[in-house]
Amino acid sequence: MFEYIKGTVEFTGPEYVVLDHQGIGYQILTPNPFAFSKDDQKERKMYIYQHVREDVLALYGFATIEEKRLFEKLLSVSGIGPKGALAILASGEPEQVIHAIEQEDESFLMKFPGVGKKTARQMILDLKGKLQDIVPDYFPDLFQTGKIEKVANRSKELDEALLALEALGYSTREIKKITPKLEKESLSTDEYIRKGLQFLLKI
């Protein structure tokens, strides 16, 4: 079982990165691949979850150990698989998810792809009060209170971000609804993804 892998990012796509470690390229699925730039070539550490089924062996990677632990907790909920858990984590705002669970905010949780009322309720039942040991730094504040078409004049970064949002499970209709807002910005791919997720969670 892997805990983490250190290496350089050799490829970044909408769904995964390829991390080179001593000449071996590991395909690693991650919530926001474009958070791991392949341009700087500096060594990166990715915390790894190894998912094994009869016909699948996949690696899931995270920038922090807290993200990995929350991913594992989400997988324990009936109705949430690895793809759904990635989509929930892709906003880069674990505290928002934790806050929604602790406050029993079903409507917020249902904004994620593949999360209906039943799954949102199950997340609350299974995880409420059980996340403080994973992300204690978030808790003091919490308790006080279809394919995407390429457009000629659109930036490469925005196109990459839209493909990444589609890979997370958002529909073409949902993505098209927020695209005009994103086109007004000039951001990196990672920033477009985060901004897009913020818009999608407000639809």
What is the helix tally?
9
H and E string: EEEEEHHHHHHHHH
**Rg:** 17 Å
Provide the residue-averaged pLDDT. Answer: 87
Query: What is the name of the CATH architecture of the largest domain?
Result: Orthogonal Bundle
Give, in spatial order, the strands making up the sheet with the most strands: 1-2-3-5-4
Q: Stretches where pLDDT falls below 50 for ≥5 residues?
A: none
Helix content: 40-55%
CATH class of the largest domain reads Mainly Alpha
N-to-C CA distance: 39 Å
Total DSSP E strands: 5
- Beta-strand proportion: 15-25%
Look at the structure and name the CATH superfamily of the largest domain.
Answer: 5' to 3' exonuclease, C-terminal subdomain
Protein name: Holliday junction branch migration complex subunit RuvA
Family: Belongs to the RuvA family.
Subcellular location: Cytoplasm
Keywords: ATP-binding, Cytoplasm, DNA damage, DNA recombination, DNA repair, DNA-binding, Helicase, Hydrolase, Nucleotide-binding
